[in-house]
């Protein structure tokens, strides 16, 4: 079966971001960018399905700026077969991304679409669920285990109280949680080979999708600073401070 | 303006996060209706009707809603929710699972994990693991929003007397089925609602050593959390994880034991009122946010702390 994987280019997870002085957003100039960690897990899961003989082709798609080609090449080096970039210079909301992905799903007709559960920049946790709604497919969100059984996918999900397993009719949408797998590293020969794999570029206009949004960001501020407190010398001093100063125990 | 709040429930009990969600709805202003979807939810509906400030409770009792499968619940919310000014749910795993599906079906953007209400159409929410706060404005006819429970003080669970109305909408969409679940059992308070949280990280070295934290927690009436490192190393189950990808907590007192304080962990606990860090590495980033820091070996400090409290 064909698997479609969506990946996002985001600021690297180790970077401590800074808010722009004019409060228009976060300063991304000259900041290290990477593939969103949850998307790496999605790519890894698709590659493992291919290695098991379950998946026959992996198409990786990104909605983003021209530079997102780097993240698509990374996915190709990890084992995806070909890539699609829907180029959009502006930052899109989840619904617009889901609509663009729906257009790609219509075109590619995958049996399984794997996305990360959330992007670590916008922290929305929406796109997979929205894509499921638009396509009418079942959704297995926050997946920590995926098993394909014929025309069904059994997905174990991380929920607040523990784990839940659901059976989804294929085609279906799955979003990955951190514990689904441990992504591999791309080897140098694979990185070289990935340069020759096909990468198609599309635009929202060509897909006939409007990216208009009902939500706009008015301003972005730094959170209230929390200063360092004091260091205590002993456990006894700590207990004394918690009892008399902070009054929390 | 009328606001629809989706009740977080386990069929037999109303989850406390619902009370925080109703608090957010009160900040928006207008009549508040609560939707209870599930199977055999009579007791939950009665509990919802008693919440202070709730005008009406809608009950959708159907086997198809028993496990909150989004393929079944989202169409129900869409059918009932069209016409409301706002649809709110707690940002729990159920809320996050169902609501974006509702938003897409209504063709509106969703606003995730709001921490404050500025006006009926303007909200604040954290982005970049809580390292920036965005103020967002929605022009959608129906504003679909998930609420971060720790951002709002719970309303009183008693004092209301809302009318209860049964609705017969919706059913099984036939796309998905519940297979089973494995819930972690614990006598300690629920992590996201606890007044005191004691969390352990990689410094605990193994799962067995978490018993030191359990003893301390039981003495304090606290819940026990963990960092991702502790979960990935298999010391404790994943539902104990605090952080950007785990649970968000904001207790009165958070005690971080053997946790370095990575950005992703801080995202889940830095709104705690008082933070205590116990770590033998005095350079650990956790000390930059801790109100009280103790540089010490946790295996000596924790048992001593347990004796003294």
Automatic annotation (TrEMBL), chain A:
Residue ranges annotated for the Electron transfer flavoprotein alpha/beta-subunit N-terminal domain, each copy included: 23-211
Cofactors (names): AMP
PROSITE patterns, alphabetized: ETF_BETA (PS01065)
GO MF annotation, one: electron transfer activity
Gene Ontology annotations of biological process type: carboxylic acid catabolic process
SUPFAM superfamilies found in the cross-reference section: Adenine nucleotide alpha hydrolases-like
Top-level taxon: Bacteria
Record's keyword terms, sorted: Electron transport, Transport
Assembly and interaction partners: Heterodimer of an alpha and a beta subunit.
Family the entry assigns: Belongs to the ETF beta-subunit/FixA family.
Function: The electron transfer flavoprotein serves as a specific electron acceptor for other dehydrogenases. It transfers the electrons to the main respiratory chain via ETF-ubiquinone oxidoreductase (ETF dehydrogenase).
Protein name per Swiss-Prot or TrEMBL: Electron transfer flavoprotein subunit beta
From TrEMBL, chain B:
Binding of FAD, residues: 202, 227-228, 241-245, 258-265, 279
Domain of life: Bacteria
Cofactor mode of binding and number, as noted: Binds 1 FAD per dimer.
Cofactor(s) needed by this chain: FAD
SMART domains: ETF
InterPro entries, per the entry: DHS-like_NAD/FAD-binding_dom, ETF_a/b_N, ETF_a/FixB, ETF_alpha_N, ETF_asu_C, ETF_asu_C_CS, Rossmann-like_a/b/a_fold
Protein name: Electron transfer flavoprotein subunit alpha
